[in-house]
Specification:
Length: 146
């Protein structure tokens, strides 16, 4: 049995630009940053950012182009895919991406602004930490009214 599944929760690093392929299919690509924090052996606090390339297709790309903005916290679930091409200088290039199959918008540009909560500006806790699994329902293409 094989499994190709990737899940990331992080912040969008740039505004989303919706494009169309020559045959009219919607596509968008963007990057999501995830942070890893730890304390090293000398007791110093360390932080490392990792950047993940995301590609969304069809209706999911259209939704992302309409609702997602730079800095917003998001959950992406999908599969890893590596594509290759020949660069102008003749070298072979590779890019590994997460092809998104599911997306959950978790919050706004900062933790003071959150979608679907009644959070006050003075409260700086992230909405994702307060939500129950029932409140974090995934977006289904069939649920979108347009």
């Amino acid at each position: 049995m094989d499994l190709n599944k990737a899940q990331v929760i992080g912040r969008i690093t740039q505004d989303i630009e919706l494009k169309q392929t020559p045959n009219g299919q919607n596509v968008c690509s963007f990057s999501v940053a995830t942070n890893r924090n730890w304390t090293d052996s000398s007791g110093m606090r360390q932080e490392q950012a990792e950047f993940h390339n995301i590609v969304l297709w069809s209706k999911l790309a259209e939704i992302a182009g309409q609702y997602l903005t730079k800095g917003q916290k998001i959950f992406i679930e999908g599969r890893l895919q590596t594509r290759s091409w020949e660069a102008q200088d003749g070298t072979k290039r590779y890019r590994t991406e997460i092809v998104g199959e599911n997306m959950i918008m978790l919050g706004g540009k900062d933790d003071n602004k959150s979608f679907g909560t009644d959070e006050t500006p003075g409260n700086t806790s992230a909405a994702v930490n307060r939500k129950t699994p029932k409140q974090e329902e995934e977006i289904s293409v069939e649920d979108i009214p347009f």
